[in-house]
Design goal:
The complex is a heterodimer of chains A (67) and B (461). With 67 residues, chain A is mainly alpha-helical. In chain A, 63% of the residues lie in helices and 0% in strands. Chain A has a domain at 42-67. The N and C termini of chain A lie far apart (104 Å). Classes of the chains: A mainly alpha (67), B mainly alpha (461). Chains A and B meet through helix 1 and helix 3 of A and helix 1, strand 4 and helix 18 of B.
Chain lengths: 67, 461
């Protein structure tokens, strides 16, 4: 009878170790997969470049309007 | 009593061992489609997506055309007044969505593989057509993935640059690695050549022999095989010659449904179905949220004499051109000009450059080597596809391409192909910088987890 019991425990042990490495990713792992790219604030020099760009665009706009 | 305990223990242990794997559905030996028509249905779904522009996986749809134009330097994000989810400030705003491209495109590859692996009838008329479409489709999908998910081709590093895993059979258990870009390119060429050998000419199947050839030319062009690019592009340009004037404008601004392909288009998406509200919003509202860049507008030296000047943008520099998802003769002409320029055949390069320009510009005076405009040192692209400094001839060809294929899903990939220049835009006090690594989209971490043989692209590790 002892052997039958041992066999039962052995079978239980074998059934519990199935696919232990193939776990579906947990929800927190899915969330952390998003890629975020840092975007810094514009420096004063960069803002000046953009202002010049805006000015050039406004001039081009006026020029085309008069064509 | 003891006997009952043994029986219970035996029952419990049997129950635990018998329920193993009951949720794992595997289709080994069981493929759902049975007849050739069933397999054809799998392919028809994707063809329908091309016709109605409901998918972004094959020829792209109008959302993609606009999105990729926003990534490029054709539109100026720094000067935009308003934004929307369809007009990302720069490519980085799209990266969180770009991670799904690999996964999404492989869903179509799966369908193609099911057809090519299991459809027994490959000799009947329908069987041959479906097989040809399947090969072309797989070639196009891999071409799209090569452009988006691999670094640009570099002859010296072709065996080092990571490619796309070759999955040519349906196998749920396979975990292929990325290989290299040369292997990927060879696979694309092999698929397209197999499709070409089947000689599909029935336009109802959309991906005909000419479409396979057009993608073959595009693939050779991307991998810098200039001789072969020239051979295929020349054949297609003869069959789809350049058109001009009103016919050209009608083709560019045409709206579905089409009875036949407009103008000299080799393939066009959104050929069927009525114009949707979504398309109208993208075209009439979203494309006009930011002006074209002054650098782009300045390329039209001949102004109104160039038919594209009035088609492309209005007097306030806001877009007028329809969002086009197509391949047409002009692209072949430009590939010929560039191919010859790379081979130092200046005469033929100029010939094809002039061929295109004379169809677009009134009272055109052909360019000669000594009348080519000098290279603009402030231009975004500084080097050509092979990494060499731009010559006046090459710069003129690239500028012509930029004007001709504006709003046609091209400029972003031109930047990628020609040196991946870094640039930035500013909006509401924030700096958005397009760095070199952003030209290559990342893989989804989920995909990397499922297949440990995959390797993430540089910059996203």
């Amino acid at each position: 009878m002892k052997y039958i019991l041992w066999c039962c425990f052995l079978l239980l042990g074998l059934s519990s170790c199935d696919n232990s490495k193939e776990l579906t990713p947990r929800i927190e792992e899915i969330i952390d997969s998003e890629i975020v790219i840092p975007t810094p604030r514009l420096t004063y020099e960069e803002q000046d470049i953009l202002d010049a760009e805006q000015k050039a665009f406004d001039e081009a706009l006026a020029e085309r309007a008069s064509e | 009593m003891k006997r009952y305990i043994y029986y219970i223990l035996l029952f419990v242990s049997g129950y635990c061992t018998s329920c193993d794997d009951y949720l794992e559905v595997k289709t080994y030996g069981q493929v759902l489609p049975e007849t050739t028509e069933d397999y054809a249905t799998l392919i028809y779904t994707h063809l329908n997506n091309i016709e109605t522009a409901t998918s972004d996986k094959i020829l792209g749809n109008f959302n993609d055309v606009l999105r990729f134009e926003c990534f490029s330097d054709n539109l100026n994000a720094s000067l935009m007044k308003t934004t929307s989810s369809y007009t990302p400030t720069y490519v980085g705003s799209y990266i969180a969505s770009a991670i799904y491209r690999f996964n999404n495109l492989f869903q179509v590859v799966k369908d193609v593989n099911i057809v090519l692996d299991n459809m027994e009838d490959k000799e009947s008329e329908l069987g041959k057509k479906i097989t040809a479409v399947a090969y072309t489709l797989r070639g196009i999908l891999y071409y799209n993935m090569m452009r988006e998910l691999c670094e640009p081709y570099d002859k010296q590093r072709a065996n080092e640059i990571m490619g796309i895993p070759i999955v040519d059979h349906f196998d749920m258990e396979a975990k292929p690695g990325r290989g290299n870009i040369q292997v990927t390119a060879d696979f694309i060429i092999d698929n397209l050549e197999k499709a070409i050998a089947l000689n599909l000419t029935d336009d109802e199947y959309i991906l005909t022999i000419d479409v396979a050839k057009a993608y073959l030319a595009r693939t050779y062009f991307w991998i810098q095989n200039w001789e072969k690019t020239i051979a295929v592009a020349k054949e297609l340009l003869e069959k789809y010659p350049l058109i001009e004037g009103e016919a050209y404008e009608a083709m560019i601004q045409s709206k579905p449904p089409f009875e036949t392909k407009p103008g000299n288009m080799i393939v066009v998406s959104y050929g069927q179905g009525m114009i949707s509200t979504a398309f109208n919003t993208r075209y009439a509202t979203d494309t006009r949220r930011r002006p074209v860049s002054l650098e782009f507008a300045g390329l039209f030296k001949e102004k109104e004499r160039d038919i594209r000047y009035a088609i492309s943008f209005d007097k306030t520099f806001l877009n007028k051109k329809r969002l086009n998802m197509c391949i047409r003769g002009a692209e072949m002409c430009l590939m010929l000009a560039e191919g010859y320029a790379h081979l130092s055949d200046e005469e033929n390069a100029l010939l094809y450059l002039n061929k295109l320009r004379e169809k677009r510009i009134k009272d055109y005076v052909p360019l000669a080597m000594n009348t080519l405009p000098p290279v603009d040192p402030s231009a975004m692209i500084k080097v050509d596809a092979e990494g060499k400094n731009l010559t006046p001839l090459m710069a003129s060809i690239l500028n012509e391409r930029r004007k001709e294929l504006y709003m046609e899903y091209d400029r972003w990939f031109e930047l990628k192909r020609n040196g991946r220049p870094e640039f930035w835009v500013g909006y509401k006090g924030i700096k958005y910088e397009t760095k070199k690594y952003l030209y290559t989209f990342p893989l989804w971490k989920q995909d990397l987890r499922v297949n440990p043989n995959l390797v993430q692209n540089e910059g996203y590790e």
